[in-house]
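User: For a benchmark we're assembling, each entry needs the component sequences followed by a predicted structure for the full assembly. Here are entry 17's components. Please fill in the structure.
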Amino acid sequence: MFYRVSGQFKTSYESDMALFPIRQDAVLLGVILLAMYVVFPLFASEFTFKALLVPVMIYSLAAMGLNILTGFAGQLSLGTAGFMGVGAYACYKLTTIFPEMNVVVALLLSGCFSAMVGVAFGLPSLRIKGFYLAIATLASQFFLVWLFEKWAWLYNYNASGAIEVRTMDFFGLVVTGPTAAPVTQYYFVLVIVSLITFCMINLTRGRYGRLWKAVRDMDIAAELVGINLMRAKLSAFAVSSYVVGVAGAMLVFFWKGAAEPNLFDIPLSFQVLFIAIIGGLGSILGNFLGAILIVALPVLLNFVPGLIGVEVNSATLEHVNVMVVGALIVGFLIAEPHGLARLWALIREKLIIWPFPH
Amino acid sequence: MAPMAQGATFPHILLENADLYGDKPAMREKDFGIWITWSWRQVLDEVRALSFGMQHLGLEQGDKVAIVGANRPQLYWAMCAVQALGGVPVPVYSDSVAEELAYVLEHAEVRFAVVEDQEQVDKVLEVSERLPYLRHVIYEDPRGLRDYDHSQLHGLADIQRIGRALMQDNPHLHDEWVQGLDRQSGADVAVMLYTSGTTGRPKGVMLTYDNLVISARNANAFDGLDSREDTVAYLPMAWVGDHVFSYAQALCAGYCVNCPEGPETVLADRKEIAPTYFFAPPRVFEGLLTHILVRMQDAGRMKQAMFHHFLKVAERVGERLLNGQPVSLWERLYYEVGEFCVYGPLKNQMGLSRLKVGYTAGEAIGPEIFSFYRSLGLNLKQLYGQTESSVFITLQPDGEIYADTVGVPFTGVEIKIADNGEVLYRSPGSFKAYFKNEKATAETKTEEGWVHTGDAGMFLENGHLKIIDRAKDVGKLSDGSLFAPKYLENKLKFFPNIKEAVAFGDARDFACAFINIDLTSVGNWAERNNISYASYQELAAHPQVYASIAEHVSQVNKDLAREPMMAGAQIKRFLILHKELDADDGELTRTLKVRRKFIAERYAPLIEALFDGSSQKHVVTEVTFEDGRTGSIEADVEIRDVERFASADGQGMQEAAE
Amino acid sequence: MSVMERPEVVESAAVSPAQEPQKREVLLDLANVSLSFGGVKAINNISFDIQRGEVRAIIGPNGAGKTSMLNVINGFYQPQEGQITFKGERRTQMKPHLAVSQGIARTFQNVALFKGMSTLDNIMTGRSTRMRQNMFWQLLYYGPAQREEIAHRKRVEEIIDFLEIAHIRHTPVGKLPYGLQKRVELARALAMEPELLLLDEPMAGMNLEEKEDMSRFIIDVNEQLGTTIALIEHDMGVVMDLSDRVVVLDYGRKIADGPPDEVQANQEVIDAYLGVSH
Amino acid sequence: MDALYLMFVDPFVQMADAPDFFLQVLWEGLVSGVLYALIALGFVLIFKSSRIFNFAQGIMVVFAALTLVGLYEMGLPAWVSVGVTLLVMYGLAMCVERVVLRPLVGQPDIILFMASIGVTMFLIGFGEFVFGGENKVMITEALGIPTGAIELNPFDGFVLIEEKDLTAVIMAVLLVLGLLLFLNKTAMGRAIRALGDDPQAALSVGISLSQIWVLVWFIAGVIALATGIVWGARAGVSFALEVIAYKALPVLMLGGLESVAGAIIGGIAIGLLEKIFEIYWGQPLLGGNTETWFAFILALVVLLFRPQGLFGERIIERV
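Assistant: Structure for entry 17:
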């Protein structure tokens, strides 16, 4: 309906392989970016930043990292939170060891540490496949959380055992710590997420994307068409863990402000996995859709009892939330196993062939 | 708007276009997944290189060069390259069998053949013994030709390479080439197009540069076409329409010609390009509409309801908007809603989103189909023309569109109607002569330059020409009223349920018709109404089918009654033929046109039954099956009478159905 | 055509290699190769060679070790004994992905395409070994990575054109009919620009028309691209039509080797085939 | 050198010095191992019959225990509570079959796996919603489980064996024996076993897939209830128990997803080894609490050398 593809012909491979070969997609993205960069900051409340916008961004990024590994390269991972933790602790250590270091540099560097740890735990993937590998990734999960707890150097021997983000500025602008304005933090997160998303889209539509998908779809065949399996798998682990690590660092630095080891325990891993799956494996867009759903759901559920005039205590609400999320996951998997991204793809397809039904 | 080229010949115009339009796209071809584009400058370069190369091969002034293949840019270039050397391109239908190809190539005395691919090379080589003048064959696509004897066979790219090398060695070559162009004049023969001709051998129509250039410029002016247009070249290059739309008009206006990847991707490719200037025969538009309606049948109820609702709105408002007639603001707004929900997307699906003007011609188009497209806001128009007239004889001007006419005389065209109803014209576009066929030339073109079209027609009060039938087919009923079988048949065929019709009545008391039902359409209807049938024969004989066809026929009669000249020839009786007319049985030509005479002989008993008043007739018919075996089918064919109506002026048929 | 008037202007294309009778260069040589799984000998002391430019058929009843033979040639299995010489170099330990960079590509008995990718992407994976731009440029995409991508896309489009699969360029391969999938697989193998192309039952499960198409493509690949081909095929008619030389395996042993008509007349071959129920 | 001594010599010295304590450690490890094995068994059964990697198995343990205690607290007699809990587990099996398995059959493994995580979430939320989120105490006495302890004095030392642990082991052994009998001696059992290898043949016995699924999930529920009772008796009933669910995963890695014997042996091995490691290496050298990850790392290392697991067949890759 909105999509009028007629007349959009390509005279070069550049335009044929462009990010948005269809003009309307580019327009749509433009509208979304406008909303994100201009409209929201103008109108959103502090609560919206803290409870919705920033978490959505950070979760999207973490899910994107996981999606690289699971959705694109087909290696199921249950240990995302552990790598997020590595990113967070790395960033914490970097900013305490080198207090002068720019926070953005520290953030981007901390991803390198999680990438290294990710590659180390990715090595078994060369021999172990499928569910066995999934369980193996749990090893990293449990081991890393244990490490965060026991290795006091990591949290600078704080009595609380937690890491706390001090106030830091970015060329004079306070970006972390309790005094940072939510809108500043939002912009920070937004820019970094935008940048990484751009890079991930590029990566997944090019040579690496094909390597990974080939390994995912049929690893033996991939090897026989000349793909170096080790390189393909480990690159997926590295890129995935990098992105996840940066997301973890941002989670602590731009959202929570402090973290105990158990923040990075298995529920966070699952949270991210849900987002990736409900959003759609093998999709970049899906991560954002999934994150919006998972983050917004509890916030919305909070309002429901008020709307229908029932008093419910917060513990019960929490339980109901967990229950609803569980039911939603099952429901979604039944309705559209390939996630929201596929749902959008189907809708888009419908709009393109409108008014025809198929 | 940029100034237009003024040259007298196509190579001249190309030269000017390269200056005027430079880097603007001149041609595109879908190949390797993208639209490879050549600017006017590049086209000039390609044409020049090819020209030098062919000159090197020995092409001389006056040489005829066959062009055989689908619409490839290289083949268009070859035409221009040949013209630049004073040669005459002879485009040939690429789907013609070797025998037909041999005749044309032999008759045209071609010295060169520029062909598309291995298939065409094989065809030419197969008949090469009969072509004493043929020297060289140049192919565009080298695939599969590697092991051929290359002594007289050349790749087009190789020829161009030679041409480029020559140009590099001799800097004066370009100037010599241009001087050569200046020696040519508009009166020279630009191209020879062989008309398929329903009878006898094809005739080579010689069109001069003046014929084509003046016609093309007039046509561009008529519809305001300029260098911003896009058109899709998909009709046979040997057909005059393609030559004018994709070559003459494109050069004169400087617009871009887009060549699809292959015949099976025309639809998709057209959708991508979204041409602004587009021609298609009526059957293409019919097919598109059927396709749309069939696809919509699977839509949900809501969507269907919305779709049909807005189509109704378009029916009311669309054409008036297009014709610039007054429309209320509310209707205009509501039409815009429809544009967003239905018309826009539909145009998008058909690849006509950017259409500025579209033409259809060749046969009569169903009025419903015609107004469907116009109501969507597509400026679809009809024209009337033929090879001998460089296409344009009459066109419908914007805002004066009547489904049943072919428009007013084109710029510079004079038209008169002969006593027997035949349309004659005289125009700047009318051809020079038939090649090596003075007899035919004399028969067709009078001393004063009037050309016989062979079509019977009449001018309506509004000054528009209406074509009735082939002049030789038009007859009279015994009471003297005009009987134009094809006119009746076309009216019948506009009903989707009727696939083919054959009308009889010349020198008879009244008019009758054979009907072939459309198996897809009627079959669909039967399926929806739970009517089971095992064969065409069974479905054709079904009483309900008869009833609905009878309704159609009486509707036609009602229409005819409104037309003063035609009211006398209403259809009194009809039958639904027990088998489909088939080219394998010789009932249709290979281009699926009805062979009236043959059918009349084959089904003589049925015709007698139509006229002797019997209500049923038993027949046995020989048939040829797909695998070539023959057999026979027999049936009792029912004959029905149909209601006829009094003519609008109160005369004619008074008697009711018997 | 009439008498020629001018001397030949264009250098005529080289004469087809198939018309050269003399002995040709040996591209691949297998000497006394044996392969076993556990105690089962899949390949038992087999020697034969493949000459540059020929179409070499490997035939034999089911379980004769044909596919294992291909797996040995492209390094998927390591033979326990024997020597393999490719392009004059003796090969030792070897990984399948290295075989590709040395110029060996193959297709599979059961189509092994990447189901979640389009035809185009599937064929592009065949170019992986030739793509050089590193992760950094890939992240930015625009610039070197894009140029490389386009350069390879052009090659791939030529192959798509060659195999006449333009209309399914953007279709996910999982949705294609079997015959077309086989063709896409051939396209992917061609994208590797191999010197030696291994085809494992390229026509299995095809109807007559598809077989004819595939035969034509195989001949075209061999003649126009000059690729050496080793193929396994059950359809004897196809083998006889396509191949220059045939090697016959049975129970992991070589029982015949030679031109098609000669092999066809070989008594041991006839016995082997009759021994297998038909 | 000190470190090397502490790592490679000292632990064994300690074991030899206090053999009675070592025995105590072994016993503790064995009890955990038996429980791991039980949960793993539930996994294996479900995986064999429906190719689902059932992440919800651990949660079913907690859910069953919670239901039992919750019902008892609502005033039902203990044994009636057990009966009702069994009914609930049967209902759960039916629901899972109807709501999850049937609509998702034929989907990729990862989708089914995710669905089981969804079920896990739902069960957690549902359990807490109905019975409250606070810690509960298992109704050991009401069920007649002995709570005393037996003292043994080997090597002139002192080993304490709690009777409820002993009960747990005995119950586990009985349950496993019963299960093995069922799987090997009944048509239904054989059908379940065959399902993994040859679904067509299994179905030709005349049992529908739905029936098998319901039954298998019910059996898994029964195992979960038994595990829940004995584990609850040791550690209390709360969703913190789900940790033990994860423990079954390395057991599966070691034993193989489809091997009943592997689940049992793997479970016991892991129970023993992680206890020993924690006591002799973890606590003195690493600050303790190594039980959270030891089993995983162990399984990972073993798998690196034997990718098919301890009980799997060697895989020959074919193309």
